[in-house]
Design brief:
The complex is a heterodimer of chains A (about 170) and B (about 180).
Chain A: H1 26-41, E1 47-49, E2 59-62, E3 77-97, E4 100-118, E5 124-130, H2 131-144, E6 153-154
Antiparallel strand pairs in A: 1-2, 2-3, 3-4, 4-5, 4-6
Chain B: E1 4-13, H1 18-28, E2 32-41, E3 44-53, H2 56-71, E4 73-80, E5 92-99, H3 104-114, E6 118-128, E7 133-142, H4 147-159, E8 163-169, E9 173-174
Antiparallel strand pairs in B: 1-3, 1-4, 2-3, 5-7, 5-8, 6-7
The chains are: A alpha+beta (about 170), B alpha+beta (about 180).
């Protein structure tokens, strides 16, 4: 196990598109363990994507179960070759990134998604998810296509924030 | 050698091209720009601009005074202790709107100060018509006593007829 070096913008490698995983072997699982250790070593990251450590395969980790305010979630997720097959609704939310230190900005994401992926052994996974967890998955999956939240920024001012009723 | 930072304020009647003129003059003089906020308030151009340069406050004023004058702007320069990379992350957003009345800002921010709320960003607008103006304010900041403390502190203000107060958490996703 090792904490890997995180690439930070403007490193051009962050724009690289990652390749699908084809071999679900011990090497894959060892890398995933390192990726998770790297996520945990960072400042409160709810997710990480393989290309953030210079490993250009379609692998992301998302875990919003420890969010400051509890949100609906599926626990700790390792998603290999993830695909979003359905989107619904949208919301503005604030995002930061391990690869973009000392900056946060507002980004529009789908509010509900249907997600299909493989687990580290190649078994099929499928989830319906919403809100913060869906946002985290979309943020991480962008890395697989060479996109950062900077590519999706909307104005900090005068944004339409969805009025939410709590209780 | 690290050069000093200055806060440059320019205020005047708005017109296109002001930012381009000012930033070109600064660039040609070898100054760096840091963070900046420009707004049009009541038809006025207004900018706060972090500028780094070696000529001292007097040098910066000498450089910018003719530019400001040519654009019909008033200039104010202060040396600041600020630095880049000092962002604080807001965790609560407060939106206030209603019929424009004297004292809304004082009441809302007074209540927020009592619960230790640190305002990091505030913007407000007056819309509606001259006969019936409406006031809209959004502010973001840190609530050290938590969002519920902010909610209950503002409940009384929101209870006043004609003022809507919305308190929402800002959950910054880091991934």
């Amino acid at each position: 196990m090792a904490v890997l070096e995180i690439l930070t913008y403007p490193d051009p490698r962050l724009k690289q598109v990652s390749e699908p995983v084809t071999r679900f072997d011990e090497a894959l699982r060892a890398f995933i363990a390192d990726l998770e250790e790297t996520r945990r070593a960072g400042p409160g990251a709810v997710g990480i994507a393989a290309p953030q450590v210079g490993h250009f395969q379609r692998i992301v980790i998302v875990d919003v179960s420890g969010a400051r305010r509890p949100v609906p979630n599926h626990g700790h997720l390792v998603l290999v070759n993830p695909e979003i097959t359905a989107w619904e609704g949208y919301a503005v939310g604030r995002e930061g990134c391990l690869s973009v230190p000392d900056y946060t900005g507002n980004v529009i994401r789908a509010e509900r998604i249907h997600l299909e992926a493989r687990d580290p052994r190649g078994e099929v996974l499928a989830f319906d998810m919403e809100g913060f967890e869906a946002r985290a998955v979309q943020h991480e999956m962008d890395h697989l296509d060479g996109l950062l939240f900077l590519d999706r920024l909307v104005s900090r001012r005068n944004d339409l924030f969805r009025r939410k009723k709590y209780r | 050698m690290a050069e000093d930072w200055y806060m440059v304020n320019l205020v005047g009647v708005d017109r296109p091209g002001i930012v381009a003129h000012v930033s070109a003059a600064l660039f040609q003089a070898g100054c760096n720009l840091g963070e900046a906020a420009m707004m049009r308030l009541g038809g006025n151009f207004s900018i706060m601009l972090m500028v780094q340069g070696s000529g001292g406050k007097a040098g910066l004023v000498r450089l910018l005074e003719p530019v400001a004058e040519s654009l019909g702007l008033r200039l104010h320069v202060d040396r600041i202790e600020g630095h880049l990379h000092r962002h604080l992350e807001p965790d609560v957003r407060v939106t206030v709107f209603g019929a424009d009345r004297a004292g809304i800002v004082a009441r809302v921010t007074g209540v927020l100060a009592e619960v230790g709320f640190n305002i990091l960003d505030l913007q407000s607008d007056v819309g509606g018509t001259e006969a019936e103006p409406i006031y809209v304010m959004t502010l973001e900041g840190q609530a050290p006593e938590g969002i519920e403390a902010v909610r209950s502190a503002l409940a009384a203000v929101g209870g006043d007829a004609g003022i809507e107060v919305e308190v929402t958490p800002i959950e910054t996703l880091v991934g």
